[in-house]
Amino acid sequence: MPIIKHEIHINAPIHICFDLARNVDVHTETTAKTKERAIAGVTTGLMENGDTVTWEAVHLGIKQKLTAKIIAMDRPYNFTDVMVKGAFHSFTHTHEFIESDAGTVMKDTFSYKSPFGFLGKMADRLFLEQYMKNFIADRAKELKKIAERNQGHIKTSKLDHIKTVNAK
Q1: Fewer CB under 10 Å: which end of the chain, C or N?
Q2: Domain residues for 117?
Q3: How far is Cα 56 from Cα 90, in angstroms, rounded to an integer?
Q4: What one-character DSSP code corresponds to residue 23?
Q5: pTM of the model
Q6: What is the average pLDDT score of the chain?
Q7: Is residue 106 part of a domain?
Q8: How many CA atoms lie within 13 A of 105 on its CB side?
Q9: Which residues contact 155 (CB under 8 A, 6 or more apart)?
Q10: For residues 121, 61, 39 and 65, what is the CA-based torsion angle, rounded to 10 degrees?
C-alpha cells in the first residue's frame, strides 16, 4: 500500500490554512487541472466531521466519481477523510497543520490501495503513485497561493454566512 507524504510551509495562520483545506469551493479551485467539482453531499463551503462529498473529475483522461467522508477532525490541527466509493480499493488522507514562527506547516499523508490486485500494484509502480504525488503537491501549492494571497478572506457558502450572522 503506497503512502505519500507531502509537507509545505504556508505564510498564513493555522486556522486559515485549516479552513481553506476543508473548503469545497477552494478544493475545486485548487484542482482546476482535473476539473474537479462537487456533485453530491456538501457541495460548497466548509466541511465538518461526518460530512461527505462526491467529486467528479477527470484523472488520467477518464471522468470519474469519488465519494469521501471526513471521519476525524481536531480543529485547527488535523482532519482525516476516507474514500467511501470510487476508483481506489481504499484510501485515507490525513491533513495536519502545525503552527510555526512564520505561519503554518501543512502535512498531507495519503495512503491508498489500488484495485485489481497485481495489476493495481503494477499501475502504482509504473505511474499511479507518481501521479498521486504530483496531484497532492500541486494542490498544496495552489492552496498556499490562496492562503498567502487572501490572509483570511475565505470564500464560504451562503449557509456558512447565515451561521456566522446567526451566531452574533
Answers
A1: C
A2: 3-158
A3: 17
A4: B
A5: 0.85
A6: 90
A7: yes
A8: 8
A9: 23, 25, 26
A10: -30
